[in-house]
Amino acid sequence: MKLALGTVQFGLDYGISNHRGQVDKAQVADILAQAAHLGIDTLDCAGAYGNSEQIIGEILTASSQQTNFNLVSKIPALSRGQSSIMEYFSQSLTNLQTDTIDTLLVHHADNLLSHPNRETFFQQLQRLKSQQRVKRIGASLYNPAQLIALSEQYAIDVAQVPLNIFDQRFIADNIISLCDKKNVKLHVRSLFLQGLLFIEANKLPRYFSPYQDKLNAFFELAKHLSCSKLTLALAIVAQDLPNYLTSKALAIKTRDVIEKVVVGVCSTEQLTEIVSAYQQAKKLPVSAEELSMLADQRLEFINPSLWAV
């Protein structure tokens, strides 16, 4: 199961299409139980996601489900005056009520690229790994340039990156080849662009007017294929991607490099729907050309942190 469960909605009112607000604790418990039932084995957490880690820790401890999930957590953005990640890591362990986690990421890659204490931070990550308090280390990224720079300086295991029907930068030949060479696994996020893909065309905020043609092309392709927008959105990661790349060998590597696809939900119904759509997306008769035509390079469109909404 490549799908992993994102948890930002458990601690924050998150997402441009989220009208339900923060998920309450009882619903979180139901979602976690359903995730385990559906075969999802990874929770993508972060100290910056409000009180989500505390809620998750309480639920997993009460239900004795810690062994069912691999936990990913992230060190929040560090100011120039800070010199240690340890306080944040310890707090995440306390909140999650565990002694170890599978993967620890730096939430802002620039903390490993341009921070005055970047070398110290990475040494601390390595120490936690050598102490077996975490199995793998890495960073959350926004663009391929960060991945290239990080892989040149550090031995990272995991990079969390954006990938969706419009933002296809991280499945470019050179990035997949780099990850294969450096043994870096990708955890994909922003698959649904915070739910933007599912907002009706006549209800889109005015900000997205310059990108209406591309959104319409996505909507029309879903109609042409007689599938839901959700199924089409998942096709970018559910297919084996043999036609995106220049060789069959790279296609196989892409399948191996993309380890997890992080999806966030507000209910068990949404989670079940996504898992079902993922299985349908694997068999969707969509061509590489149809999907590649939807790729867009405009950061103001594909990077939600830049949206003026």
Structural notes for this entry:
The protein is of the alpha/beta class and 309 residues long. The protein has a single domain (3-306), classed as NADP-dependent oxidoreductase domain (TIM Barrel, Alpha-Beta Barrel). The chain is 42% helix and 14% strand. Helix 1 (25-37) crosses helix 2 and helix 7 packs across helix 10. The protein is globular and about 55 Å long. Residues 15-19 have low confidence and may be disordered.
H and E string = EHEHEHEHHEHEHEHHHEHHH
Briefly note the CATH topology name. Answer: TIM Barrel
Q: CA-to-CA gap between the ends?
A: 34 Å
Q: What shape does the CA trace take?
A: globular
Instruction: Give the overall average pLDDT.
Output: 91
What topology, given as strand order, has the largest sheet? 1-2-3-4-5-6-7-8
| Residues in β-strands, percent | 5-15%
Total of domains? 1
Query: Helicity, in percent?
Result: 40-55%
Give the biggest sheet: 8 strands, parallel, barrel
* Low-pLDDT segments, ≥5 res: 15-19
Give a brief rundown of this model.
The protein is of the alpha/beta class. The chain is built from 13 helices and eight strands.
From the structure above, extract its key features.
309 residues, alpha/beta, TIM Barrel, 8-stranded parallel beta barrel, 42% helix
